[in-house]
Design goal:
With 252 residues, the protein is α+β, with helices and mostly antiparallel strands. It has 3 helices and 15 strands. The strands form 4 sheets. Strands 8, 9, 10, 11, 12, 13, 14 and 15 form an 8-stranded mixed beta sheet that branches. The chain has a 3-stranded antiparallel beta sheet with strand order 3-4-5, with no helix packed on it.
């Protein structure tokens, strides 16, 4: 499900579901994921429910692991107060330990709370929001392209990933070092030329996250961090993981 799609295969012309007309009902559009060739159709344009795009034709389904085939990217902006959202503050809060229930979970559950007028706070909520708006759109005080590194926004990061960012990553090769308490991921998915090191000082947290990644090696790993250049050289970045609130798995 997606809140926007593209009119053309080259993905130059965006159409928002909220702006779709009755005449668009039988037209096909292209998935926001540049790797996915599925054709999307507008649903609920009559106002009975919130309009959205879905791959409703069996011949034009999403590719495996496409985020837009996943319920975890469903985002209803009417449930959240955009004016109160600060991306930097939200990521900083994810880096702080507290006694609240862990945000690390699979996408089988809803990515959004059932309350209204809330501010985005969990990594799944922020990730869902980022996936449902085009890279050049803004939410709160920041553009989508400056909040997340994924296949849509890779062009925003020609020199690397620095500061508070969410990455959509995956496992490639050996992904952990028990002596250093480190997890290794790569991104973006289509062209994984950036390497990310998750340094986890807490041994129990390290083991928990290592096992979680091992059990989901074929899934996308979503990570929020304060990224800095690694001493391993160009293309390597690292962050410290303080809490499992910083990590989520995108299940199919």
């Amino acid at each position: 499900m997606a809140n926007y799609a593209y009119r053309d295969k080259e993905r130059k012309h965006i159409i928002l579901a909220s702006e779709a007309l009755e005449e668009d009902r039988h037209k096909s559009f292209y998935c926001p994921n540049p790797l996915c060739n599925s054709k999307l159709f507008i649903c609920a344009v009559d106002g009975s429910r919130k309009a959205h795009f879905r791959a409703t034709k069996s011949a034009y389904k999403h590719i495996d692991n496409c985020p837009y085939a996943n319920s975890s990217v469903v985002f209803d902006d009417n449930k959240f107060n955009q004016s109160n959202f600060s991306f930097e503050n939200a990521i900083q809060n994810l880096l702080v330990k507290n006694n609240s229930k862990s945000a690390m979970s699979t996408s089988k559950s809803s990515s959004c709370d059932e309350h209204t007028n809330y501010t985005l706070r969990t990594i799944k909520q922020i990730y869902s929001m980022c996936k449902q708006f085009p890279p050049n759109y803004s939410y709160g005080n920041e553009t989508i392209g400056r909040m997340i590194l994924d296949d849509r926004t890779a062009y925003c990061y020609p020199k690397g990933v620095f500061g508070f960012k969410i990455i959509e990553s995956c496992v490639k090769g050996r992904f952990y070092d028990n002596d250093k308490n480190e997890i290794y991921l790569v991104a973006p998915i289509a062209n994984p030329n950036y390497h990310f090191i998750l340094s986890i000082p807490d041994i129990n947290l390290y083991r928990k996250i290592r096992n979680m990644v091992f059990e989901n090696k074929d899934k996308f790993i979503i990570v929020a961090g304060d990224w800095k250049t690694s001493n391993l050289g160009y293309g390597y970045f690292e962050t410290t993981i303080y809490t499992d609130k910083q990590i989520s798995i995108l299940n199919s």
